[in-house]
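testing teh design pipeline on a random one, pls ignore if ur not involved
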């Protein structure tokens, strides 16, 4: 066949038509193909709204409903809340944006994400140990978090049985002591909560994590609204709201400011790999800045609503707002036992506490599960089983530290206290600090600009200034205070 006759061949013509069609298809779909290559192997959230629910679920936990009210009570109320809100804006939101940005750019578990991005930026591979630190912190936290969540599960059934009705302070204290002094009971509740957590995680991003937060988070907010409505009927609602929102700066001191800074950091689940791995599942067209602000606002709203529930009940029953960690498990049951329909609202409150703990727990173990799937060929079910079993075994140390190991101490701390100190006061602040350093000093300006994709240039400049200078200094202050370098009043 002569060259000029090639175009007349039906076979050649069909090949030419196919090539023209293929070039056209690439032009139309090339961008979506590039984006598809940047989707995590674990899948991705189906929408921006689901990511907000998931990340809010990770942030909202025992810290909001158990810890925030009692540290607010201990530090004078409204002035402490104002400092806390300022710290959310200066520390929490910039680091959350940085962690989500790193997660989405890497699209892998925190360990592999940090290794990949360090290589991309031409930096030392030792940065992968920042990912290891987050995964380990989440694992250690969940090992004792599950035990505390088991207390909440136990209290759901105790409240439903009416055991708190008419109980005295000694009776309520005895109920709590009886629970924590029994390793068998704590083991049963710890096991049940871990099984609940791993069932969700084993089902993957769409089938497990997404379905859980789709229902858990709206239910949590509904329960909070119902309980706020009840608090309004106690006769002490205005007193509680005034305590929470009317600042008296004479009641706040340097130690209170540092506590507010630390809690603002911890309540958003930063530095433990959870937000980073959740960020790896979000689509390209989701605004990191907008969603981070929404998540921080939702998390803060839950904490404030919890205060609006608890303080009116506390004041209506003549109790002390600064009762410390026992406020939830020893003080509030006393109030539920004295109020009309107390058993019903007691059940609602502890169900709320379980939901908050559950939504956080699934995010704490997800980084470890994702790493096993990526690096060792595990199925999600197998990875969930092994991670759950390891976490369950580690939790035995926390269980025994309340009873048969209560006299065994290292540096004057029980096993539980040591884990809590190591993670909350050392690993998380250090993780957050290095996330800020990596995002602002190690990643190139072009990389962070591309990923954040802020349409208003001044907002990017503000974020970069905060995360480069202001946030690291604030985190260092919190960190030094936590390890005892800076004394409190």
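output:
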């Amino acid at each position: 066949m002569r060259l000029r006759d090639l175009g007349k061949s039906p076979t050649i013509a069909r090949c030419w038509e196919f090539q023209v069609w293929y070039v056209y298809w690439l032009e139309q779909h090339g961008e979506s193909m590039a984006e598809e290559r940047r989707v995590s192997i674990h899948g991705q959230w189906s929408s921006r709204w689901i990511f907000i629910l998931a990340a809010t679920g990770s942030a909202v936990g025992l810290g909001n409903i158990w810890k925030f009210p009692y540290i607010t009570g201990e530090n004078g109320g409204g002035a402490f809340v104002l400092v806390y809100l300022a710290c959310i804006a200066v520390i929490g939101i910039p680091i959350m944006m940085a962690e989500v940005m790193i997660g989405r750019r890497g699209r892998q578990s925190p360990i592999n994400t940090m290794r990949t991005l360090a290589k991309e930026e031409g930096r030392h591979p030792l940065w992968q140990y920042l990912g290891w630190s987050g995964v380990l912190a989440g694992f250690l936290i969940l090992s004792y978090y599950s035990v505390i969540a088991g207390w909440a599960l136990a209290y759901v059934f105790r409240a439903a049985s009416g055991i708190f009705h008419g109980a005295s302070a000694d009776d309520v204290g005895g109920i709590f002591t009886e629970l924590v002094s029994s390793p068998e009971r704590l083991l049963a509740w710890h096991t049940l909560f871990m099984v609940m957590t791993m069932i969700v995680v084993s089902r993957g991003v769409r089938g497990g994590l997404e379905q859980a937060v789709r229902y858990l988070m709206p239910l949590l907010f509904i329960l909070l609204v119902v309980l706020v409505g009840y608090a309004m009927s106690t006769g002490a609602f205005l007193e509680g709201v005034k305590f929470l929102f009317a600042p008296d700066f004479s009641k706040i001191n340097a130690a209170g400011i540092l506590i507010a800074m630390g809690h603002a950091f911890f309540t958003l689940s930063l530095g433990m790999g959870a937000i980073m791995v959740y960020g790896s599942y979000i689509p390209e067209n989701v605004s990191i800045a907008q969603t981070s602000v929404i998540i921080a606002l939702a998390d803060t709203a839950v904490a404030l609503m919890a205060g609006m529930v608890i303080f009116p009940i506390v004041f209506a029953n003549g109790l002390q707002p600064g009762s410390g960690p026992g406020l939830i498990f020893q003080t509030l049951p006393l109030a539920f036992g004295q109020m009309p329909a107390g058993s019903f609202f007691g059940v609602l409150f502890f169900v709320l506490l379980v939901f908050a703990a559950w939504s956080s727990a699934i995010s704490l173990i997800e980084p470890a599960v994702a790493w096993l799937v990526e690096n060792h060929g595990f199925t999600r079910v197998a990875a969930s089983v092994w991670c759950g079993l390891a976490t369950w075994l580690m939790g035995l140390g926390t269980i025994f530290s309340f009873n048969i190991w209560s006299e065994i101490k290292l540096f004057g701390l029980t096993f539980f206290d040591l884990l809590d100190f190591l993670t909350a006061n050392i690993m998380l602040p250090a993780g957050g600090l290095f996330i800020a350093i990596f995002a602002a000093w190690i990643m190139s300006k072009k990389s962070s600009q591309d990923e954040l994709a802020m349409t208003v240039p001044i907002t990017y400049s503000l974020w970069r200034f905060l995360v480069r200078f202001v946030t690291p200094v604030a985190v260092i202050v919190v960190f030094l205070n936590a390890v005892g370098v800076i004394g409190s009043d």
